[in-house]
């Protein structure tokens, strides 16, 4: 009897411990290999230090700076391809909008992990997606993206949000920044991936299965 209770308790505690992991986020950081050329309606990434800036829908290069969580096959130092952007006039990209993004082509390519872009989010700078903020070093321009990651091995998808950031050292006036465009600058980006959380029905089924496993273990203990 004591053995069966221990088995059931062990199974239940193991299940409870595993539930939070379903909703854990995965963080990914990248740095540009080379600079970005930022214009009033485009961002062109450089294909390596000293390489050409690739107009959309061409690809530049980036490198993984850090990663946390389980992102299969992605490690710091790994190189990636990143698609240059010609920004839409409307900073929020409607679902049917494909130009200038190549349909079916990942925005960020990390081997088996392919990031697809579904939206550029609204900014605060002259009807563009750029968010301009003041810092002690100069203006910082950011833009935010939404999309999903496709694992080409398992054919599963995960949603992500991302933020690109560039600091314009010495430029403290927004009008001066606008008149100086296009500007070449180093850039970095961070992505937050949100794995799917099981629905209540899925958790219920998991609980039923664990209860069944506990009953089976109890019967075996009695026979012993």
Identify the quaternary structure here. Answer: single chain
Element pattern in H and E = HEEEEEEEEEEEEHEEH
Percent of sequence in beta strands:
35-45%
Number of strands: 14
The chain-level mean pLDDT equals 75
Overall shape: it is globular
Roughly how many Å apart are the termini? Answer: 10 Å
Which structural class best describes the helix and strand composition?
alpha+beta
Largest sheet: 8 strands, antiparallel, barrel
Can I get a quick summary?
This protein has 224 residues and is of the alpha+beta class.
Structure description:
The model is unreliable at 7-22, 89-100 and 198-216 (pLDDT under 50). The protein has helices at residues 2-18, 174-180, 200-223; strands spanning 26-32, 36-38, 42-46, 53-54, 59-68, 79-83, 85-86, 108-110, 113-120, 131-134, 138-151, 156-169, 183-185, 188-194. Helices cover 21% and strands 39% of the residues. It is globular. The strands form two sheets. Strands 1-5-6-8-9-11-12-14 form an eight-stranded antiparallel barrel.
Keywords:
single chain; 224 residues; alpha+beta; eight-stranded antiparallel barrel; 14 strands
Please write out the topology.
Elements: H1 2-18, E1 26-32, E2 36-38, E3 42-46, E4 53-54, E5 59-68, E6 79-83, E7 85-86, E8 108-110, E9 113-120, E10 131-134, E11 138-151, E12 156-169, H2 174-180, E13 183-185, E14 188-194, H3 200-223
Antiparallel strand pairs: 1-5, 1-14, 2-3, 2-13, 3-4, 3-7, 5-6, 6-8, 8-9, 9-11, 10-11, 11-12, 12-14
């Amino acid at each position: 009897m004591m053995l069966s209770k221990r088995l059931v308790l062990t199974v239940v505690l193991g299940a409870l411990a595993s539930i939070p992991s379903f909703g854990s986020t995965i963080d990914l950081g990248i740095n540009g290999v080379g600079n970005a050329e930022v214009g009033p309606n485009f961002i062109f990434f450089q294909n390596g230090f000293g390489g050409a800036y690739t107009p959309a829908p061409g690809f530049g290069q980036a490198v993984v700076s850090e990663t946390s969580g389980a992102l299969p096959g992605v490690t710091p130092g790994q190189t990636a391809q990143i698609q240059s952007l010609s920004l839409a006039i409307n900073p929020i990209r409607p679902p049917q909008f494909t130009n200038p993004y190549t349909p079916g082509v990942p925005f960020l390519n990390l081997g088996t992990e392919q990031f697809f872009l579904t939206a550029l989010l609204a900014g605060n700078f002259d009807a563009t997606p750029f968010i301009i903020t003041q810092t002690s070093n100069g203006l910082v321009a950011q833009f935010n993206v939404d999309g999903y990651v496709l694992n080409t091995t398992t054919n599963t998808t995960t949603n992500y949000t991302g933020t690109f950031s560039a600091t314009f050292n010495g430029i403290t006036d927004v009008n001066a920044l606008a008149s100086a465009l296009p500007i070449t600058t180093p850039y970095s980006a961070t992505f937050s991936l949100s794995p799917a959380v099981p629905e209540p029905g899925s958790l219920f089924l998991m609980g039923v299965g664990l209860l069944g496993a506990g009953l089976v273990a109890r019967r075996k203990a009695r026979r012993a």
